[in-house]
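#lab-general

N.A. 3:47 PM
ok so I finally got the sequence cleaned up, no stray characters, all 324 residues accounted for. can someone with queue access submit it? mine expired

B.Y. 3:52 PM
send it over

N.A. 3:53 PM
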Amino acid sequence: MVSIVIPIYNEEEIFHLLHSAVTDAMLPTGEDYEIVYVNDGSRDRSLGLLLECQRRDPHVVVVDLSRNFGHMGAINAGLRTAKGDAVALMDGDLQDPPSVIPEMIKEWRKGAQVVTAVRRSRQESRKLLAVIFPLFHKFLDMMSDFKIPLNSGVFGLVDRQAMDTINSLQEGNRYFPGLRAWVGYKNAIVYYDRQDRVGGEGKLSFMSRIKYAFDAIYSFSAKPLRVSVFSGLSCVAISAVMLVALIASNWTAWTPSVYFPVITALFFVAGLQMICLGAVAEYVGRIYDEVRRRPLSIINKVYRADTAYQTLDQPESVDVMRAA
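B.Y. 4:20 PM
back already:
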């Protein structure tokens, strides 16, 4: 069976288009499948539409979170609920075309355990994001300690073995494309053209995207700390040059101002300290998140065709759904 996991947050405008597109993509494959919709605390009619769809379509599974936990929290809940031998993951805004899923299934049938969907091109009405995304991926490629496919997002497919490995990872601040690349296994790439949103507004705020970018960088690279070390060494070298220049001024006609080197040094050292402390603080903040051991998301109910609902209200059940 193939599971398709789709996080949903206030997508009532396009949900029917989304479900039709996923169904149209899966029916010709002949595969047994389930569509796991994760309601991430939607404030519109999304949950009602999901439950209505689940009653009409036995392939649909609805995971209702107790509140809005964000994109990664919803994805984590969906991946841990999915029962498929292969699990495909996509966003619910139809920017990831469901028609690509059969291509990924073909690669999986050929033996690939991790299939990454890489954007060949992207249509983006939000011009700022159209500029920022390619720059971010290039920067991440330069910073990362190991190779993450460029221009890839959460859209992709992993088989059960790789999925179980990803679910077993202990970290809470997750960058899924990085984890998918980090676990290894036999990889394949499928190229596609990313579309603009079919309707409605993007649900991720700019600050959420910034946090996600920081999670990507700090989860898969120690280079920011190394940059701080090299900056410190550069500071020492510059200070040595300044000291030599001040000593040499005793035998030259150049007379430096008393205040200029002092003020310059104070500003330089203070700025360097802030950069180093900022890099260390990012890691300390993530250590703090891991030490708290809070679940990445909490499932309220799981609706399936074979049961009216399943309530996860026991502490041990909640612990199963945690990232750690």
